[in-house]
């Protein structure tokens, strides 16, 4: 399934938050969204996921979700959102319940996603026994379990330390390289954007408009060894954001 954002604008109260967003999200690509604080990145993700309806414009879905998708648009949040009293397997099982799957099918899906996220040995652990990185792996496993057509990721690595972030980025690249998925990935972090994004959408200050779309034509798996080329892309992104980020920062201080 691929998505088109067709002229999306949105307000909260009298405040315009997003204006005239036109964007294509191709199947099998990771589209990163960056921009200054408060420019409407998370709002855009909620509109894409259908959690809110845009005041103007529409999110168009093309091609339909795969027949076995239990939740075509699936979120991964910064704070993991795990139930503390359920084990790793129990947290994943939760999203498979109420879909009419038998226990054997559920167990097979759980075992598969645990293996893909290197969590098989932690099946019976509780969230409090896991590091932040492991908790986010569980959240990724849970998202994969419902076979989403599009993954919607809102700052998924920003609660993690930089080493764990590196490891999780490698994991995401490994998962994508084995089975390419479609994702919209909101981040403040330009390193993440240039490591994970096939295209990077730069939003302006609020009301967020598309300022530029930077395409990075380098296979994800090759990126760790190509620091110089990536740093060029990162500099280009920063030059697009820098002045507006400073202005947005002042706006928050003055508020
Ligand atoms: N439900 C809401 N009701 C009212 N205002 C909201 C709501 N959600 C977000 N806002 C406001 O809309 C603007 C955009 O918020 P949003 O969280 O989408 O921006 P963002 O780019 O993701 O921000 P950040 O980079 O700080 O995470 C902000 O001014 C925010 O305070």
UniProtKB/TrEMBL annotation:
Protein name: ABC transporter ATP-binding protein
Family membership: Belongs to the ABC transporter superfamily.
Listed InterPro entries: AAA+_ATPase, ABC_transporter-like_ATP-bd, ABC_transporter-like_CS, ABC_transporter_ATP-bind, P-loop_NTPase
Coiled-coil residue windows: none
GO terms assigned for molecular function: ATP binding; ATP hydrolysis activity
Alphabetically ordered keywords of this record: ATP-binding, Nucleotide-binding, Transport
Any matching Pfam family: ABC_tran
Keyword match Repressor: no
Lineage start: Bacteria, Pseudomonadati, Pseudomonadota, Alphaproteobacteria, Rhodospirillales
Domain of life: Bacteria
Domain ABC transporter residues, every copy: 3-230
